[in-house]
UniProtKB/TrEMBL annotation, chain A:
Residues in FtsX extracellular domain copies: 56-148
Pfam families documented for this protein: FtsX, FtsX_ECD
InterPro entries linked: ABC3_permease_C (IPR003838), FtsX (IPR004513), FtsX_actino (IPR047929), FtsX_ECD (IPR040690)
Subunit structure: Forms a membrane-associated complex with FtsE.
This protein's name: Cell division protein FtsX
The keyword Transmembrane appears for this protein: yes
Species this chain originates from: Micromonospora costi
Keyword annotations from UniProtKB, A to Z: Cell cycle, Cell division, Cell membrane, Membrane, Transmembrane, Transmembrane helix
Automatic annotation (TrEMBL), chain B:
Summary of the function given for this chain in its UniProt record: Part of the ABC transporter FtsEX involved in cellular division. Has ATPase activity.
Subunit structure and binding partners: Homodimer. Forms a membrane-associated complex with FtsX.
GO function terms (MF aspect): ATP binding; ATP hydrolysis activity; transmembrane transporter activity
Tagged with keyword Chloroplast: no
Name of the molecule in the record: Cell division ATP-binding protein FtsE
Native species: Micromonospora halophytica
């Protein structure tokens, strides 16, 4: 019976002040969506780093007038270098073939370039892609080396952008969370005020503190959980419309967001939403009801 | 015991010492601001004395932790001048509410509530709302609510303050009947008529001090 009483009080409470409840749920939902999005992004960036760094190459381009001796020396040196995992030599013909493939949509460009003009290169994979700098310092002055290009440079820029977006989402989540928090506090105050007579009687006849507080706290928790559910819906829509829709062109660049990832962040959002609401409500009641 | 409220120039209660036996009927009288209500609040553990102890039913209330307060309150019934009934509940529901919020089942309420409403003389009016009842009847509901849990002590803070003399007498008869069941009744009042008619122990307080403590006393 007591459970039934508490639950019916929760529903009555949410309905009594329905505009405020909606405001509370919406801010909570937006905040949790942002939180979920930044959580997804975190996993995303990790996934992408794994994927890209595995395939990343450092290219050492050789000068046109490199001698046979210089090339063999460099080859031997690279092969014995502890930082290097794999060495692949690309000669002029091979380079031209790759060039043709890469620019097959632009035959004019391909025709304008002779195999002769393309530099030979060593494509190397590093044991640890972040040690690019060491390789660069070590080989930049070697005879016959023209230029050292590291693909991870470019990737770092992409990751910087993704991290920045992630931080923005997180900041937005925090700001919205503060708004949600204040709304919860306000809603609870209004609820406590509209039930002040009941609360006074309950305190007088010796109802336990948890019994007095439970309907209010649960009211906030229910709103928080509904907010988390709406956040889940928002994330699903975002995947559906953005990732699988308008951003599909970037699919090669961004690793896809799986349904599993979204389901993985949902419990996290729900726990944060529920817990933040519960604690806020409880603290508000301590000040407001002094129970 | 002594109680000084913050910002007050003089103590609300100054070195007051009172002992009330189980089953007694005691009036606290005195002008407004003399400290009568502070005594009630202390008995309810709503405020604590700065100095001294409050012992209720053998338990030191002063040192009681606040989380134990709800359980302690269940042994004390309270009636106030302004009734403090829930306007959107019937007489029956008002009394049942007090039982249900301390964990009693609806079945217990169904058995006990009609009984206590009968006792206070509201048989047949169980399903009236407070606004459909007279002041005296509302106070009877409040008394029923205070008494339904069979408390050891009934605190009444000017229970007749809003009632006409005849109705007041009826409420007093009711409190007297409750007292005869063995419940200690502590009542704060301004009403000289009632005190003079009842002839019970009278403790007069003035400016936070006891100036008179008289068995079978009058208002004076």
């Amino acid at each position: 019976m007591r459970m039934k009483y508490v639950l019916s009080e929760v529903l009555v409470g949410l309905w009594r002040n329905v505009t405020m409840t909606i405001a509370m749920i919406i801010t909570m939902a937006v905040s949790l969506t942002m939180l979920g999005a930044s959580g997804l992004m975190y996993r995303q960036v990790d996934d992408m780093k794994d994927l890209y760094y595995k395939n990343i190459q450092v290219s050492i381009f050789l000068t046109q007038e490199v001698s046979e001796q210089q090339r063999t020396d460099l080859d031997a040196k690279l092969k014995s270098d502890p930082l290097v995992k794999e060495v692949l030599y690309v000669n002029k013909d091979e380079a031209y073939k790759r060039f043709k493939e890469m620019y097959q949509d632009a035959p004019d460009l391909v025709n304008a370039v002779k195999p002769d003009q393309l530099p030979e290169s060593f494509r190397i994979k590093l044991n640890n892609p972040e040690q690019y700098k060491d390789i660069y310092d070590q080989y930049k002055d070697t005879e016959g080396v023209d230029e050292i290009v590291d693909q991870s440079r470019l990737l770092d820029k992409i990751f910087d952008i993704l991290t920045a977006i992630q931080n923005i989402a997180l900041a937005a989540a925090i700001v919205m969370a503060i708004a949600a928090l204040l709304l919860v506090a306000n809603t609870i105050q209004v609820a406590a005020y509209s039930k002040r007579r009941e609360v006074a009687v309950m305190k007088l006849v010796g109802a336990s503190n948890w019994f007095i507080q439970a309907p209010f706290v649960l009211e906030a928790v229910v709103a928080g959980l509904i907010g988390a559910l709406l956040g889940l819906v928002a994330l699903i829509l975002a995947k559906y419309l953005l990732f699988d829709g308008s951003l599909e062109a970037l699919q090669g660049l961004l690793s896809p967001v799986s349904w599993g990832d979204i389901l993985f962040v949902f419990p996290f959002m729900a726990v944060v939403g529920g817990l933040v609401s519960a604690v806020t409500a409880w603290v508000t009641l301590r000040f407001y009801l002094r129970v | 015991m002594t109680k000084t409220y913050p910002k007050a120039s003089r103590p609300s209660l100054d070195n007051v010492s009172v002992s009330i036996e189980k089953g007694e009927f005691v009036f606290f009288i005195g002008p407004s601001g003399s400290g009568k209500s502070t005594i009630i609040k202390m008995l309810l553990h709503e405020v604590s004395p700065n100095k001294g102890r409050v012992v209720v039913n053998g338990k030191d209330v002063t040192s009681m932790r606040s989380w134990k307060r709800p359980h302690f309150r269940r042994s004390i019934g309270c009636v106030f001048q302004d009734f403090r009934l829930l306007p959107n509940r019937t007489a029956y529901e008002n009394v049942a509410f007090a039982l249900e919020v301390i964990g009693k089942t609806k079945a217990v309420a169904r058995r006990v509530v009609p009984e206590v409403l009968e006792l206070v003389g509201l048989g047949g009016k169980e399903h009236r709302y407070p606004h459909e009842l007279s002041g005296g009847e509302q106070q009877r509901v409040a008394v029923a609510r205070a008494f339904v849990n069979r408390p050891l002590i009934l605190l009444a803070d000017e229970p007749t303050g809003n009632l006409d003399p005849d109705t007041s007498i009826e409420i007093m008869r009711l409190l007297d009947r409750i007292n005869r069941t063995g419940t200690t009744v502590v009542m704060v009042t301004h009403d000289s008529n009632i005190v003079n008619q009842m002839r019970r122990r009278v403790i007069e307080i003035e400016s936070g001090r006891i100036v008179r403590d008289q068995a079978r006393g009058v208002y004076g």
